[in-house]
Amino acid sequence: TDEFKIPALPNPMRQPFEFGGYTNNYSLTLVAMDGRVVFRKAVNEHKILQQLPTGVYTAFWTKKGFTKASKLMVW
To answer: Where in the sequence is the domain holding 29, given as residue range(s)?
Structure first.
């Protein structure tokens, strides 16, 4: 398998995060605890992650067909 490291986002996240550099090589989907998708970014898509409600989210990072999940806290 093609191993990859999950990009570093500030955790807990307190301010906007702008995707750029190596993070553009990943797609990202953030899912709230109730199953709602609250943020989505495609590979090479320029976006700023901001104004998420306080809570814990599951972050699904995908690169070259492989996906890893992590938790992201916002407060």
So the answer is: 17-74
